[in-house]
Amino acid sequence: METILSVEHLMISFSQYERGWRKIQLPVIRDLSINIKGHEIVAVVGSSGSGKSLLAHAVMGLLPANASWKGRIAFKGEELTGKRVGELRGRQMVLVPQSVSYLDPLMKVGDQVRRGHKDGISRARSREVLGRYGLGEDTEELYPFQLSGGMTRRVLISTAVMEKPELVIADEPTPGLHISAAKRVLSHFREIADGGAGVLLITHDLELALQVADRIVVFYAGTNVEEAAVSDFQKEERLRHPYTRALYRAMPSHGFEVQPGAQPYVKDLPVGCPYGPRCPIADQGCMEEIEYRAYEGGMVKCRKAGT
Amino acid sequence: MRLEAENISFQYDNGNRKILNNVSMGLEQEERVGITAPSGFGKTTFCKILAGYELPDSGRVLLDKKPLSAYGAYCPVQMVWQHPELSVNPKLKMREVIKEGDGVEERIIRGLGIEPDWMNRYPGELSGGELQRFCIARALGGQTRFLLADEISTMLDLITQSQIWNFLLEEVKRRKMGLLVVSHSGELLERVCTRIVDLKEEISIWT
To answer: Which member of A9, A179, A245, B185 has the lowest number of beta carbons within 10 Å of its beta carbon?
Structure first.
């Protein structure tokens, strides 16, 4: 299967001013690599505020002006430059944004989904897409404030799939939705992937990601620590990184166990493994740069895995 | 002590349908009640009324048979909101934010895993999970008798979620507080609550 998106050693930092004049660089994402093939849903799971939305914005070329990035991002083997992103964005690759605030409040839903096109083909296509997500013709005449949370999600997805994209990036598509509504939204992404596109799902909700994704990439303190197949989450022993195992044990259905400590702030990251200070098996050797390596069918950034 | 909602009805000004229609419910001290319902059923609105942020169109909220307004400046019913980033003043450092509570004990601040260094930061420099710890600490002042938790862990990763809930459970037991938990996660409610109420099924709930 063809690789749709590959991200290698992505680093994103923000410049900020401290105490007025001193300019500092804040590295929010330090090292992130990910591959997505067609027909596949890959979920990037990390806690809120860990900067994972920036991955979506970097791929889409939507980073704010005070951010800079390094690394390599390629779409179907071709490196993404500013110009190329502009050509692909909204056509071959689309973003399903996080919140309702991304819709134009003064434009009716139908016109927004069609992006202002008024011709018969666009109308037929928008009718078909909206209908697929259970939104009737009357929805096209509504303004965004008249939509419920679940309808808004479906409108956002409709806007994204109007052009039959090859890559769909969904940024936190489910918070605030009731469990059955969230599952329905995720099943729409499954359909998109089954249709041949690659889907990148960015979320903090591991339990929901497990229901729909094919692979899970676990994100911690600016780096990815593990990449695992969804089936690996059936048993704790099959998980590779201590952080992923702690996530597993913290699920309400798996013991609700407490792991002390908090994710380190980007300004004061520990030396070496970012999980080191909380890790029960860390030792002196973990205070150095850790390699992200293939291990038992997945990837792991832990020197202890398999020892 | 008992927190009692009597025949609460409520409708927002924008002319939409009635959100709460004649809802009644009682919450004892030392009881942990979970509330579940699909979105749009008025779970948050119900919490806001119980905590005194909104007045119902009809019906009343009684704490020990007295209305909430009889309790002076500090309301013994405190609410923790779903979006911590929207419930702190962005221009105050965290050490000022925590002072908005009612003399929050050092023990609580430590128990929630709040690092001393976070006190010197502005809300924009903390993650959602870190901010939510402050919001919970702020609601756990000395005179708090009932705590309403409205989807307080939806935006958190699993580890932070279990840290916060395990602490809260211990705290409400120690202080014999009543706890009302709103969540869409059935597994979480099963784990945390002594009783679960479906707002959708019971328009007029158990009294």
So the answer is: A9
Its ipTM equals 0.74
B174 and B197 in contact (C-beta within 8 Å)? Answer: no
B198 contacts B36 by C-beta, under 8 angstroms: yes
Number of domains into which chain A is organized: 1
Record: contact B127-A175, CB cut-off 8 A: no
pLDDT attached to residue A19 = 73
Largest CA distance in chain A: 67
CATH number of the domain to which A291 belongs: 3.40.50.300
A25: helix, coil or strand? strand
CA distance B176 to A86: 59
The answer, for B73 touching chain A at a CB cutoff of 8 Å, is no
Q: For residue A275, give both structure tokens.
A: 């999980």
B158 touches A at CB < 8 Å:
yes
3-state SS string for A198-223: EEEEEECCHHHHHHHCCEEEEEECCE
Residue at A230 is within a domain: yes
Please state the domain extents for chain B: 2-198
Beta bridge partners of A59: none
Fold of B2-198: Rossmann fold (3.40.50)
Mean pLDDT per 10-residue segment, chain B (207 residues): 92 73 90 86 90 93 93 93 89 95 92 89 84 95 95 86 93 95 90 89 46
DSSP state letter for B143? T
A81 domain residue, yes or no: yes
Query: What digits encode the pLDDT tens for the residues A26-84?
Result: 888 889 999 999 999 999 998 766 778 889 999 999 888 888 999 999 999 999 988 99
In a domain, A249, yes or no: yes
In chain B, positions 45-64, which contact chain A (CB-CB < 8 Å)?
A: none
Residue of A47, A172, A202, A278 to mutate, testing the B interface (most B Cβ within 10 Å of its Cβ): A47
User: Does residue A263 lie in a domain region?
Assistant: yes
Which residues from chain B sit within 8 angstroms of residue A268, using beta carbons?
Answer: 117
Burial class (CB in 10 A: 0-12, 13-18, 19+), B65: exposed
In this prediction, residue A21 carries a pLDDT of 79
* Domain enclosing residue A275, as ranges: 3-92+163-300
Backbone angles phi, psi at B141, to 5 degrees: -65, 170
Choose the weakest-confidence range: A85-89, A125-129, A178-182, A188-192.
A178-182
Give the predicted TM-score (pTM) of the model.
0.81
Nearest CA in chain B to A259: B159
